[in-house]
Write a structure and sequence with these properties.
The protein is built from 13 helices and 13 strands. By secondary structure, it is of the alpha/beta class. The structure holds pyridoxal-5'-phosphate. Pyridoxal-5'-phosphate binds near residues 185 and 195.
Length: about 375
Amino acid sequence: MTSRSVPFFNYPRAYLDDRDDLLRIFTEVGERGAFIMQKDLRDFESALAAYTGAKYAIGVANATDGLELAWMAIGLRPGDEVICCSHTMLATAASIKTAGGVPVPVELGPDNLIDPDAVEAAINPRTVGIMPTQLNGRTCDMDRIMSIAGKKGLFVAEDAAQALGSKFRGKHAGTFGLAAAISFFPAKVLGCLGDGGGVITNDDGIYDKVYQLHDHGRDINGEVKSWGRNSRLDNLQAAILNYRLLSYGKVIQRRRAIAAIYQARLGGLHELELPPAPVENSDHFDIYQNYELQADRRNELKEHLRINGIGTLIQWGGKAVHQWERLGFTVKLPKVERFFERCIMLPMNMFVSDDDVHYVCDNVVEFYRG
Ligand SMILES: Cc1ncc(COP(=O)(O)O)c(C=O)c1O
């Protein structure tokens, strides 16, 4: 096997592969002096709403802010509990906390997303909401989540940071609950050249409140209606996102094709538990923000891949939300904890070629079969 280098994510290429177009956009926006809340941002908000089928979209500074603003708009009071999965980024739980509530992390289910049975078991008189994370580009079984929420009268806000374009039964991630946030961090499937995020909602009242919160309390006419802050998406980033949204369908198809190669090459290894393969016409349409699997001897596998030039990632510093002891969690969640002993992410992005993916697979097979 000829050795090669396959970085986990090649950040310079996020710029270099589109350099001419990006410089053209930069020059064009710069010459207009269109830096804050200009046409490119409005166009992007309309395009994002149209793409997801949401009534409204608001560009915000990052998805963490977007999630927090969503909970602030919904209105959490001290002591209000919101159930989330412990297998998620800290930002999910942090948004509940910083908006004034109490995050309650629970177990993952067989699909490695929030377990609806665990959600039901965690509901008590203080529970006001559920926050599923549409993780790794896969949307949860939202029929179950919405039915639990409906029965118990709970709010749902989705962490769709990793899931733009992902669907459950034909409906876009982020459009099931009252509001959702999407991230445009550079390594996201739709990434800009810095921080960026969007909030989507179908609810007129939530839209008004998030809009005001993200722009100093001002409404769309500039009139101050409430207290707010600045969490706006830069117009230049919006212009880049408009450009990238044009080829977004192709990007998703490419990621699904990479997932299909991983599945075909690694599916027979009993030491691995792979994520679901891309299947047409199933309930789930996955966009593969990440290719996260569980592996026997995970740390040795990671090292074997590293010495062969392959970058991998263990999400979020190798810990689930409830395992960050300084944050005050006391709960034990054995399934999530086991998952974090075994999880690893393989390269999954537009910069890996088929040959790169086969090289990664050759090395994984070599590790287990010698
Ligand atoms: C699941 C999840 N939630 C929230 C966030 C926060 O997004 P941002 O970096 O745009 O604040 C991320 C980003 O990595 C994420 O993966």
